[in-house]
Amino acid sequence: MFTYEVAKGEGWTTTAKLQIEAIRSIVEGQPLPERGRAVSSGEYELAIPSDWQVITKQRHIQLPDALFEQYDLLECRCFMGLFPEIKRAWITVDHRLFLWNYEDESDFYSFEDQEQIIVSVALVKPKAGVFVDTIKHVLVVATPLEVFLLGVGYDAGKLAGMRGSGSGGEVTLFATQISVPADGVAMTSICGTSDGRVFMSGNDGSLYEFSYQSEDGWLTKKAKKINLTSTFASYFVPTFLSAKHDMAALSMVVDDERRLLYVLLQDASVKVFWLGADGSKFLLAHHHKSIATSAAMLCSQFLEGAAGGGAAFEIASMHVIPLSESRTLSLVAITSGGSRLYFSPVRRTQRYYEANSLPAQLAEHQPEVFDLVHVRLPPDLQSTTPRSMQSFASRQILNVHTGFYRNGTALLAHTWNEDHDSIVGAAPACAQIQARMVRQPRAMLSEYASSARVEGRTWAIAEIDSASGAEGPSPAGLNDLASVSVAPTRSFAVLTNAGVIILEKQRPVDMLRALLARPALQDSQLHEFISVYGQDETCAMCFTILCVDDYSLHAMGMQVPNAARRILFEYGGVPHYVEPLAPGFVTGGDVAVANGPRIELSGRHNGLAKYLARALQPVWSRPATLTKKEERGGDSRLHIGIPTTDLVDVQERLRGLQRFLNNNQRFVPDQLNQMPVQPADSSRPSADVATCWNAESSSLAALYELSVRASEVISFLCLLSDFNLHVFSDSIPEAQRKSLSGLLFSQLVASEAGRLACKELILALINSQLKQRVSIDSVSDVLSKSCSSIFSASDTSLYKALEYLKLAAEAEEGAEAVALANEALSLLTSISSTLTAKQVRDICQQFEALGQYTAVASLSLACASESDPNNDALAYWSDGKPADDARASIYDKRMECYKCVIELLDKRRASVLNAKSLAQLPNNDALFQFELYDWLVNNDQTALLFQMRAPFVEKYLSLEARTLEKCDMLWHFYIHENQFGKASVVQRELASSSLEGIDLTRRIEYLSLSISNGKIAIDMVRGGQTRVQPARELLSEEEEINELATLLRESEDQLEIAQVQLEIQQQLRALGGHEMPVHDLDCRLFTVSELYSEFAEPLKMWDAMLLILKASNHDDSRMVEGIWLTILRTVLDDSQSTGLMAVASKVSRLGSRLYPSAAAFPLPLIAGILVGLSQERPDEYRTGYVGDTMVHASVPHWAVFEALNTLYVKTAGGDVAMAEFLVREIIALTSKWMESKCGDSADSAEDSMPVMAVDEALSQYIVNATLNNNVALKNEIQHVQEHIRRIF
Predict the structure, then answer these.
(1) Which end of the chain, C or N, has fewer beta carbons within 10 A?
(2) CA–CA separation, 424 vs 412, rounded Å?
């Protein structure tokens, strides 16, 4: 075998496809004048070797003696022509018509059932629905009296053998009874369209249509002759009174693609008729009357007609150029002087700039122009040097009377003498054109030319066994270099009055073969040939010579194959570095090297790539599968889209290539042992040389693998055809059948979609065999032998397992079914990495039907694990499943596998929803466990999630993309696991999170729970029951307690702020009209600064301001004084009758919440404000009001005493009334405090009074009262002081 390393994975497909597409993208077809913008050309190349001929005579078939005998009976007229469609030459002798099978040489068919002289004959397509299906052609026979139709039955079955075997098929003529009168007009030319219209040109200058139908109608005849060119008045003028006739036509040709009819008149002018978009019209579009003048204007060397001063200008023949050959050129006319004139129905600007959009438009509209756009001068057959247009003054003058043109090849029948013609052949010099196109994309047309002398006068030339087929040439068919691997040699029949001469067109490969067959082949000749065609093309030709079957190889002898091998190995070149190309320019035979010179691969490699691309060209872009409707029933079924014969032809070429490579191991040198010696003048280091050879080796390996894969796909398609794909495709679901339909051959060979399609088709084939109770061993053997890359060892195990499952389903005993299912599971588990998600699902359904539920889980999880050995899916999931990530496909496949298990659990929910059953599932697959947890959560089974004690629960609940539900489950899980510290952290995070569904009340609840769990965690750590942070065991107990305490304090502070936030929200809600701020306060926890600046201050929420000051401990006496004054003044003003009582109530409520915050509730300030308000409202004031108000605000008596005493000290030396007022408040406060203590033996530590300080203060008050002569106040103070002293 071919032993070099093949690229792994899908690398070979990418490399090989790039090589194929690069070769296909090279412009190899259409060597026509439209390639350049020159209006004329006349270059002809000399062949190598110089005696090489474009066309060669293969055989001369003499006319049968019986036909010569009939010719001797000639009285009036004899005509001859060729019908290549049925492999016949036709000859008319007066009223007799003969169809001669020139391949059988002696077989001819005679028709003598009429007595009129035959003036014209044509073979045309029949109209649809008129004749039986066996009649594929209609013979139109014209006499001066009538024109009638004969049905032609043609059986080409005998042509299935080799060409030249002497069989031309079988022809039968059928009388149709369809005819029209000729009215004495001789029809000089007849032609037909593809849809059955028949046009005739009469010698009276008129054009007629032979219109016919299957039966006579009420108002229409079965057949009628329609004069298409006469005027309405001519119907009323007798023929003998007609002044003149139109000029008669010499010939007509139909362009079915463009819906045009070209008519050549006797004055060498051409009329163009448009047949309409639907082919039913007949409109004169153009009449080109001055063709010779136009040609002379385009080419000064055109010397025919008046321009040359010689005979009148004549056109020998016209030939249609199909759209597949040219988008802009539609007709080529061959002149009597041998020139070719190319006409276009497209305006110049469209020809140059809009050619790609023309084919879809040409048939829909009448052509706007009919211009002569290019003149191709004839070759000078007497010259021995390359000719250009400048040297045509002395060229040989041709006398052409019949011509042929197709696919770029022209054959001209030139009158040599009275008894002989010379067939001049011209064909594109493809290699020279391609070489010039590298330098100039619109290179001028250049051709080879030669001649072959034939006996007799030439009547007709036609191509036989056309490689292009009836549908027209392919672009590659125009280029001998591109089509040499896929098309047989083109053959032509030349009909003369002496017989039929079979000519063959020689290709460049034939030129090389002739050169290599020479006895004394010189190296200089090889170098000359290679210089013309290049290394790549020369090597491609060598592959064409060598990659044939053994019989053909032996038929060539030893010299030619050996010389071809020598060229490959000695002249094939080596890969090497070249300087970088211009940006954006890459060729098919190059390998790019980043930031440096590129590697140019050898001509041997590029020749192989070209040969392979051309070998695959017939099938590469064709649909391998098609959906067709059956004739009976109308059901759509899947069919093979490429004929088996085409597939086998391509496969033979591929196998020939593989045989050559396998038999020539040194074609790609081994990098270690067979590395070619580096050239002596090479400046490259040996490492660079090795890099070049490694690049070539890798590319060749990819191409070889591509050829093997393509050959195996062909075998696979042939196998499907043998097993009747259209029959068993019924079992394929409709949607899947649609996806399989229309797949290109290239997709089956080199794409993942194609590989999967092959698997689906194999599965359908296997299922069809199993339904018929046929063992699949034979099918598996055929597939594994002929399609090993498509049907591998793992496929064998797969389909064997499927067979076991089918047998298990049919087994009568349970034990047997279980054993078969286990065997199937064992096989499937061993190949689980190769199974697709759909295959896993289908197989799991079969296991489920057998009751093998454990097998469902085992296979699904094994497939998920084996298909992702690096666990990329889990990383992709953990990363949040980013878009356009290559890991997405792996993740999707694993999800499909898990879905099989989850769906089974869902179906059997009643029996599996318990911790014991779920614990039996494999728990080492984190991604599956996450899917399982999701299923439990969705089914409200969170309790089972904790009871399972599964290993990934905490990770599952802790990962990103967390929901409120999962977070709640997480802190419940921590509490279930006695990890209260972690629960506290989660709850605090929840309170501050932006998750939906958490309002402010719930946030406060989470903070409260966090504080409670934090305290429990501290107590547990102190008690030594558990460590809260198992992962941080290096922390000491004290460090852990400190950490928890810090978190606890932060939570408490956050709770206090949250409560202020709640206060603000409640106030806003009560006010109404603040829906948005109320909503915003639910969405998150605000900081004190945010609460103050965004809500409290703008909305004048004074109470909230005080709460914020308390929470922040912000000390601003002026601010707090202003706030308190505003609050209390507002209360006082709003309560006229009970102002002081309302103030007392307000202070009591706020004080109970603010005390002992000195920032929000400074006692001296509050006391002073109350004193001031009391003096403003003396009628409402009662002694002790200030002290009672502050005590009711939860302020201890001693704190109130200190506040009042401070005020007294400040005013004692000034305002006597204020001092007395404060003393009476202190006396009332002290008296009430002593009353509250009467009967109570133990003072409260928090509400105890500083008795000594009070006693000292009272003494000072007595002194001041004495000084102020306030006896009454003095007595009250002394009374209280005595009371205190008695008690204490």
Answers:
(1) N
(2) 5
Digit-coded pLDDT (tens) for 1232-1256: 888 877 655 444 555 678 888 888 8
Cα–Cα distance, 711 to 654 (Å, whole number) = 6
Residue 759, token pair as written in the block: 């698997």
The rounded distance, in Å, linking the Cα atoms of 915 and 733 is 40
Measured CA to CA, the distance from residue 642 to residue 721 in angstroms comes to 10
HSE, CB side, 13 Å, CA atoms: give it for residue 1051. Answer: 29
Structure tokens at 495: 């009909």
Q: Rounded to the nearest 5°, which phi and psi values hold at 610?
A: -65, -45
Closest to 768 measured CA to CA, from 804, 724, 805: 724
Q: Distance of alpha carbon 256 from its chain centroid, rounded? A: 36
pLDDT tens by residue, 1029-1085: 444 455 677 888 888 888 888 888 888 888 888 988 888 888 888 888 888 888 889
Cα separations in angstroms, 680 against 684, 693, 846: 10, 17, 69
Tell me what percent of the residues of the chain surpass a pLDDT of 90.
18
Q: Which two tokens stand for residue 398?
A: 């041709």
Distances (CA, A) of 1158 to 916, 1164, 1261: 61, 10, 27
Nearest to 259 by CA among 358, 366, 342, 344: 366
Least confident of 8-12, 75-79, 726-730: 8-12
The kind and range of the H/E element at 1205 are helix 1197-1211
189 has a pLDDT exceeding 90? yes
Q: What share of the chain is helix, strand, coil (3-state, %, to 5)?
A: 50, 15, 35
DSSP annotation of 127: P
Total residue length of the chain: 1288
Q: Is 901 helix (H, G, I), strand (E, B) or coil?
A: helix
User: 691 burial class (0-12, 13-18, 19+ CB within 10 angstroms)?
Assistant: middle
Helix axis angle for 1216-1237 and 1271-1287, nearest 10°, is: 30
The order of strands in the sheet holding 120-124 is 120-124, 135-142, 146-155, 170-181
C-beta neighbour count of 309 within 10 angstroms: 7
pLDDT in tens, 700-736: 888 888 889 999 899 988 888 888 887 877 777 777 8
Q: In what order do the strands lie in the sheet with 315-320?
A: 40-41, 371-376, 340-344, 331-335, 315-320
The C-alpha angle 797, 799, 783, rounded to 5 degrees, equals: 90
Instruction: Give whole-number Cα distances, 717 to 232, 651, 744, 795, 800, in Å.
Output: 61, 11, 12, 17, 22
Q: Which pLDDT does position 307 carry in this prediction?
A: 59
- The pLDDT tens digits for 760-812 are 888 788 777 777 777 777 777 777 778 877 777 777 788 788 888 888 888 87
Sheet holding 223-227, edge to edge: 187-192, 198-202, 207-212, 223-227
CA separation for the pair 517, 511 (Å, rounded) = 10
Contact 58, 491 (CB under 8 A): yes
Cβ neighbours of residue 552 closer than 8 Å, sequence gap 6 or more: none
C-alpha torsion angle, residues 32, 37, 41, 43 (rounded to 10): -70
CA distance 731 to 733: 6
Q: How confident is the model at residue 332 (pLDDT cuts 50, 70, 90)?
A: very high
- CA–CA dist 1124, 641 (Å, integer): 94
Query: How far apart are the C-alpha atoms of 781 and 787, rounded to whole Å?
Result: 10
853-889 per-position pLDDT tens digit: 888 888 888 898 888 888 888 888 878 788 888 888 8
Taking the C-alpha atoms of residue 80 and residue 668, their distance in angstroms, rounded to an integer, is 57
Residue 423 CA to residue 39 CA, distance in Å, equals: 26
Q: Is 717 helix (H, G, I), strand (E, B) or coil?
A: helix
